[in-house]
Amino acid sequence: MNFAKALQSGDVKTLRQFPKADLHNHFVLGGNREWIFQKTGRQIHPITRPLSSIREMDAWNSRYIGQFFNSSEGRQFLIEAAFVQAKADGVTVLEIGEDVWGLSAFFDNDTDKLIHTFHEIHVRIAPEIELRLQIGLSRHCPVDYLEDCLRHFWGHREFYSIDLYGDELAQPIEHFIPIYRRAAEEGLVLKAHVGEWGTAQDVVSAVKLLHLDEVQHGIAAAEDEAAMDFLAENQIRLNITPSSNVLLSRVPDMASHPIARLYRHGINVTVNSDDVLIFDSDVSKEYLRLYQSGCLTAEELDDIRVKSLEKTEIGSDRI
Predict the structure, then answer these.
(1) Could you tell me which of 204, 297, 196 has the C-alpha nearest to residue 246?
(2) Which distant-in-sequence residues (6+ apart) come within 8 Å of 82 by Cβ?
(3) What φ, ψ does residue 193 adopt, rounded to 5°?
(4) Buried b vs exposed e over 211-235: b needs ≥16 C-beta within 10 Å?
(5) How confident is the model at residue 317 (pLDDT cuts 50, 70, 90)?
(6) Residue 55 confidence class, pLDDT cut points 50, 70, 90
(7) How far is Cα 5 from Cα 78, in angstroms, rounded to an integer?
C-alpha cells in the first residue's frame, strides 16, 4: 500500500510507516504523551475545541507542563519524549532545538553540553532520524539580550537553522536584522514565525528584511495574490501546522485551511506538528485530517510529504 492509498483507507498505522519530515516542532510540547505517562504517571490531555485567546493556551501550559519539567533533568526528559514521538510517527527528518535562554537555565551556559545532550539522545533513541538542530529566539526578548546569548552559539557548525517565534506584535521584525545577517554568515537556514497572526504583507516584509529561506506558518499569505506570487517565485518554504491553526482559531476549520490555496499556487508547503501535546497533532494525523476534511487530495498530500524531505538550498541568491 502506498501513502495515498493509506490516506484513502484512513489507515494511520500504515501512514506512520512512510518517511516524513517535521520541520515545525517545539520539542518542549512535542513529546509522546503515552511515554510521558508511563515514565511519570502524568496525564497530559490535548485541547479539543478551538481556543479564544492565547491566554487559554498559557493556562493549558501552566496546568500540564508548568514547573514540572523546569530543571536540567526535566529538559532532557522532554527532549527524549520528542524523539520517542518522532520515531513512533515515522518522522525521518526532525528539526528541533533549544531557545537561547535555555542554555543558561538548563545547560550551565555550555553550548557543547547542549549539543551533546541532543545528539546523545538522538543516537540512543532514534539514530535513523536526521536531526536538524535549531537555535530558537523569542521575539519578546530585547535584541541586545539575544545577541549576548548568541555569542555562545556562533561558530558551532552542529546547528542547522535559526528560528524567531513568539508574539508577532511584540516588536518590529526589522529589530532582528543584525542577528539574521550574522546567522546568514554562519551558514544557517533562516526561519521565522510570521503570518500566523499577522498579515500577508507581514510575511513578505519578514522574508525581505531577514532574507528568510523558510517561514513558520505564513498562512496569511493566502489572502493576497501578490504575496503568494512572491513566495512561489522566490521558492520560500512555508512550514505549516494545520491543527494548531484551527485550534488557535486562526482558520475556521480544516476543510478551508489555506494550505490548499498556497500549495495550488505553486508554493512549497510542508505539514508539521507544532505542539503535539497541546493539539494532538502528530504528523501522520495531520496528513489524514487534511485528506479526510477534503482540503487536499491524497496525491497532493503525498507530493507535499515527498518534497518536505528535501533540504532547503541556501546561498548567495537569498532575497
Answers:
(1) 196
(2) 25, 27, 30, 31, 32, 94, 96
(3) -75, 120
(4) bbbbbbbbbbbbeeeebbebbeebe
(5) low
(6) confident
(7) 34
